[in-house]
Write a structure and sequence with these properties.
The chain has helices at residues 34-43, 55-58, 74-77, 80-86, 99-111, 121-130, 137-154, 173-180, 197-209, and strands at 24-26, 48-50, 70-72, 91-95, 162-165. The protein is α/β, with parallel strands linked by helices.
Length: 225
C-alpha cells in the first residue's frame, strides 16, 4: 500500500531538515511549476523553503540548507552552480513548460508586482536572471531559453543528478519520487498557483487603464490565459 503523505511541519523548528531525504533544489524559473514542486516536496516530508531571501546567497552563504532539505524558485535557480558546489550529491529538478505559455504567465505575474519589489537584492536577483529588474518580453524569453540550455550543459554526463519536469504536461509523482528515493503517496500530485482568470483579467484591466509595470513601460504582449 502506498504511504500516506507526511507533510513537513517546519514552523517554529530551529532545524527541520529531514535526514532521510536528500537535498533537492528546484531550479526552474518562476511560473514553471515551482509552487507545485514546493507543495509536492513538503508532502513527501521534505523541509522546504520556497523563494528564500537571496541576500546571503549573494555573499556566498548557503547555510540555510543546513536546516532545509530543499528549495525552489528564482532565488534558488539563480545559484544552482554554487549550491551544487556547496552541497555535493544533491538532486536538482529543472521545471519547464512551453516557452510561449511561460512568457504569457510571467508577464501577467509581473503586471501585479509593485514598483518597490525591485528594492535591494530582489532587484539584483532579477538582473542576474533576466538581465533587468523589469525585463521586456524579449529579455524574458531569451533568459528562459538560456537558463534551460545552461542547466543542461552544466549537468551533461550527470543525468542521475538532474530531473526535468513539465507539470503542465502531467509530470508528477511517477518522475519525482524515484528520483529522490521516496515512495509514491496515495494523493494526487499538487498542481498549484496557475494563472487564474481573475489574475489575467486584472492584468488586462491594468492595460486598458494605462497602468504601467514597475519600469514605467508596458510589456507589449497579448495577454491570453
Amino acid at each position: 500500500m502506498n504511504p500516506q503523505p507526511q507533510r513537513a511541519d517546519t514552523l517554529g523548528m530551529a532545524n527541520p531538515r529531514n535526514t532521510e531525504i536528500p537535498r533537492v533544489f528546484v531550479i526552474g524559473l518562476s511560473r514553471t511549476g515551482t509552487s507545485s514542486l514546493n507543495e509536492a516536496l513538503q508532502l513527501l516530508g521534505s523541509a522546504h523553503t520556497h523563494n528564500p531571501d537571496p541576500e546571503p546567497f549573494f555573499e556566498g552563504d548557503f547555510s540555510l540548507f543546513e536546516s532545509y532539505n530543499s528549495g525552489s524558485d528564482i532565488s534558488v535557480a539563480a545559484f544552482y552552480r554554487e549550491l551544487d558546489e556547496a552541497y555535493p550529491g544533491s538532486k536538482f529538478v529543472l521545471t519547464l513548460r512551453d516557452a510561449e505559455a511561460w512568457l504569457r504567465s510571467v508577464v501577467i505575474h509581473f503586471t501585479t508586482l509593485p514598483k518597490n519589489s525591485t528594492m535591494g537584492r530582489r532587484g539584483e536577483l532579477r538582473e542576474r536572471v533576466y538581465g533587468s529588474a523589469w525585463p521586456t518580453p524579449e529579455q524574458f524569453l531569451e533568459s528562459y531559453k538560456r537558463h534551460i540550455t545552461e542547466v543542461a550543459a552544466y549537468f551533461r554526463g550527470r543525468e542521475e543528478d538532474l530531473l526535468v519536469m513539465d507539470v503542465t504536461k502531467g509530470d508528477g509523482w511517477e518522475k519525482l519520487c524515484p528520483f529522490i528515493g521516496r515512495q509514491i503517496p496515495n494523493v494526487p500530485f499538487p498542481f498549484t498557483n496557475t494563472t487564474t482568470e481573475e489574475t489575467a483579467e486584472r492584468a488586462k484591466q491594468n492595460l486598458a487603464s494605462g497602468k504601467k509595470h514597475g519600469s514605467g513601460i508596458w510589456l507589449p504582449l497579448p495577454l491570453r490565459t
